[in-house]
Specification:
Distance between the termini: 20 Å
Number of strands: 22
Structural class: alpha/beta
Strand content: 5-15%
């Protein structure tokens, strides 16, 4: 692809005429986006064909990354940067009287994920390509994704997110790649010794493939993200249609195709839970069938499967892969149980991403028997074999046997995380603390039985997306100081420490950050109508809304700050803008209530004359990758305030710190490792650590006792509970406050006092802008360890045993 603007513009005009049927002089911003995407797509396709041909020629060992979500975001700028022609493209669109930012904004965010898990998967795919690894990602081609979030009367409202409404310029349909996925039915046992059972599904869905190409940076390598769309074997019931029953004619199609409509359907109903199970099996089965088919095409046999392929389960959503791989090897390919089990455990590895009990999926045996009867038979056999092994390992220890059982007798329910552990050769956490807690709590019995299979790989983020692309002003400054090599070797950022005492450089760094803050302030005004002061401290917490992430603690600080400001309006308050963003799962009532509380508090605080110019609270709706790319470079303070021991790693903490935000946080997840790299003096830490949390809970924590000890806490909760922020409905938050004082599962009240002290320290620090900027620059310089390239290289070397291939 030409990197010279004039030549690129010539090709762009040709695409506009020949492919889009648009006169170049009349091209809209959307036309320009699609024309540039067509140019980039052509180059990617050439490189992809060459990469695939090289892998086939050398019979490279491949890794296959199975994940329920891939939060890719927009692809145009990232792809053009990988091809080395982003600057030329920006100049070319200017010739058409269009701004580069406006052309980029014409592309819809790919709605294939929700939060950190999906964005991490997207970063890892890009790093796999950049490192030259033969890799495929596998997921679902969601037609509507999670949901588009709007706010009405302070409450979250979910809308479909039809990101594919106008098509995607990046995907390659593969009509010749289609796999049959069965559900329900019955299992016919083998007719004789050694004869495999035969599963007769009641219904069969077709999984159709669509490929998105993932470019590597500064390399010719292009990786593949293969997504599956569910399709009915017959599009409509023609007989019903001819009889005029059009609803029944279309119902058949919808019943099959709803599997790939929406990410994470609401599971408050039995129908929603069953659909989620169908989704997980659908994409997992299609992916494994695809892997086996490609392997047989290239090698002609399966006995070398584990030698040539690695399959990685990213979280427990694809854990059914253990049973599906066993089914395919035994039922379809005639393997014995011992041989299939050995091969399965050599092929699969598993990353756990959570310690939260509700996120460790379990499925009722009754549901599995109805939806996946053959898989339940296989799981039952694995359960029986493991039970025997456990009894030999721990004779007479009934409690341990029950904890480690694959099928929980109460329910009974199948523990999918246990299935992933039993069927994998390696299990890892995603930070040092998380790996330790996995070994000591969730998987303690498995780790005691075979400790060699457990480790951790701390997460990382892409420096191309999360610094070079989203923060060009800072990227240019870094290039001038240390050169551009940091894009491929983030450890090079350590060179910025030589500039910490250069006053002129620190001032330029602060100026770049201030420009980013003005850009975010404009977005806030456009999206919410709230005017904020770009000179105020931008205090940011952007992530999925969940009780363990403790957005409530953040809001309680805002209330305390407002109360204190009203009590002492003449005091020297450091101006602050508190920025929240994130979606609540549609069925998560408490998370939705927290969003409403945020808007109620904002309505009162933002209209108070005493708070004008000194305190603003903003909730940005519909948080996603593109919005994050504006927020991350503008944040002064990064709130990472989850209860210690609950956040597996976090990647928002990495993106914010990489762009120069100072961290206000607990000793949780990867924040501990960030502290070790950037220096505790450049952070504001508070609260109990994981051991302290365990000790406090063991003592029998009584949250109501905190009210007598801390009048600030009592005043905040009284204001929330008595309707100060909801005068039209004074009792709106009584249940929220009551639950906090009865249970306080995430020790919000225990950490409140320490949190306020940390916030006061941030005020003191922000009053010294030059020192703050120097601390922010020191933070950037220490973030080299948190590159997705480093994390993927660890996986490739230690777990997947995959090497770069051309």
């Amino acid at each position: 692809m030409p990197s010279h603007a004039a030549r690129l513009d010539e090709e762009l005009q040709s695409r506009l005429r020949d492919e889009l049927g648009v006169a170049p002089g009349r091209a809209s911003r959307g036309d320009l986006m699609r024309g540039l995407a067509a140019l980039a797509r052509q180059q990617l396709a050439r490189r992809w064909v060459a990469s695939d041909a090289a892998d086939r020629r050398t019979r490279a060992r491949r890794v296959h990354f199975l994940c329920m979500e891939f939060l890719i975001g927009r692809s145009l700028a990232n792809t053009l940067a990988a091809l080395g022609c982003e600057d030329a493209a920006a100049q070319a669109v200017q010739r058409h009287a269009a701004a580069w930012e406006d052309v980029q904004a014409e592309e819809a965010d790919a709605a294939l994920g929700n939060g950190g898990l999906g964005r991490l998967a997207a970063c890892y795919l890009e790093s796999m390509a950049t490192l030259g690894l033969p890799a495929w990602g596998y997921g679902i081609r969601y037609e509507y994704g999670m949901f588009a979030q709007t706010i009405q009367d302070g409450q979250q409202v979910e809308h479909p997110d039809p990101w594919l409404e106008d098509g995607s310029p990046w995907e390659f349909p593969r009509p010749d790649v289609c796999h049959r996925i069965g559900f329900g039915g019955r299992v016919e046992q083998g007719a004789g010794p050694g004869r495999a059972p035969v599963w007769h599904p009641q219904t069969v869905v077709h999984a159709k493939a669509y490929d998105l190409l993932i470019p590597g940076h500064a390399t010719e390598r292009v990786g593949t993200l293969r997504l599956w769309r569910s399709a009915a074997p017959a599009l409509i019931d023609l007989q019903a249609f001819n009889l005029g029953d059009y609803a029944r004619a279309a119902a058949c199609k919808n019943a099959y195709e709803n599997i790939s409509w929406v990410l994470y359907p609401d599971d408050r109903t039995p129908e929603g839970r069953e659909l989620r199970l169908r989704q997980e099996y659908f994409f997992t089965s299609a992916s494994i069938q695809d892997i086996l088919a490609r392997h047989l095409e290239e090698h002609g046999r399966l006995d070398n499967l584990a030698a040539q392929q690695a399959i990685h389960l990213n979280d427990s959503h694809p854990a059914i892969a253990v049973a599906e791989l066993m089914r395919l090897l035994i039922d379809e390919h005639g393997w014995s149980w011992p041989g299939a089990w050995a091969q399965t455990r050599q092929l699969l590895s598993y990353t756990n991403h959570t310690l939260m009990p509700e996120a460790l999926e379990t499925w009722p045996v009754e549901l599995l028997a109805r939806v996946l009867p053959r898989h339940l038979e296989i799981i039952t056999r694995i359960h029986q074999d493991w039970t025997q092994e456990a009894r030999l390992a721990w004779p007479g220890d009934a409690a341990r046997h029950a904890r480690a059982a694959l099928i929980d007798a109460e329910g009974p329910r199948v523990r999918m995380a246990h299935l992933a552990v039993l069927g994998s050769h390696h299990v890892n956490g995603v930070s040092a603390l998380h790996g330790k807690l996995l070994r000591e709590t969730v998987f303690a019995d498995f780790a005691a039985h075979d400790p060699s299979r457990f480790s951790h790989v701390t997460n990382g983020v892409s420096p191309r997306r999360w610094l070079a692309q989203c923060n060009p002003a800072l990227a240019q400054l870094i290039d001038e100081a240390i050169g551009p090599a940091w894009r491929r070797d983030l450890d090079a950022l350590i060179g910025l420490r030589a500039w910490l005492d250069d006053g002129a450089f620190v001032a330029r760094f602060a100026a770049a950050r201030q420009a980013n803050k003005r850009r975010l302030a404009a977005v806030i005004a456009h999206e919410t109508g709230i005017a904020v002061d770009a000179a105020s401290l931008f205090d940011v917490q952007v992530k999925r809304i969940h009780e363990y992430k403790r957005q409530l603690l953040n809001l309680m600080h805002v209330v305390w700050r407002w109360q204190s400001l009203r009590a002492a309006p003449q005091a020297d308050w450091a101006p602050r803008t508190v920025i929240l963003a994130g979606k609540a799962a549609s069925g998560y009532a408490m998370a939705r209530q927290i969003i409403r509380l945020a808007h109620d508090i904002a309505r009162v605080v933002n209209s108070d004359a005493d708070a004008a110019g000194r305190l603003r609270l903003v909730f940005l709706p519909n948080y996603g990758v593109s919005l994050a790319e504006v927020v991350m470079p503008a944040a002064d303070l990064s709130q990472q305030i989850s209860l210690a021991g609950t956040e597996a790693s976090g990647t928002g903490n990495m993106k914010l710190a990489l762009n120069g935000a100072l961290t206000l946080g607990t000793a949780d997840g990867a924040t501990i490792e960030i502290r070790d790299c950037v220096g505790e003096e450049n952070m504001f830490l508070f609260g109990l650590d994981a051991d302290g949390v365990a000790a406090r809970r063991a003592q029998g924590y009584a949250p109501r006792e905190q009210l007598a000890r801390d009048p600030r806490l009592a005043g905040v909760l009284e204001a929330i509970g008595t309707g100060v922020f909801s005068p039209e409905e004074p009792g709106r938050y009584l249940m929220l406050v009551d639950q906090l004082l009865r249970e306080d599962a995430y020790l919000v009240t225990a950490d409140f006092g320490s949190y306020l002290q940390a916030q006061e320290r941030t005020d003191e620090a922000y009053r010294m802008p030059e020192a703050w900027a120097r601390r922010a620059l020191a933070t950037v310089s220490g973030m080299g360890h948190f590159s997705a390239d480093r994390a993927v290289a660890e996986y490739a070397r230690r777990i997947w045993r995959v090497r770069p291939s051309g």
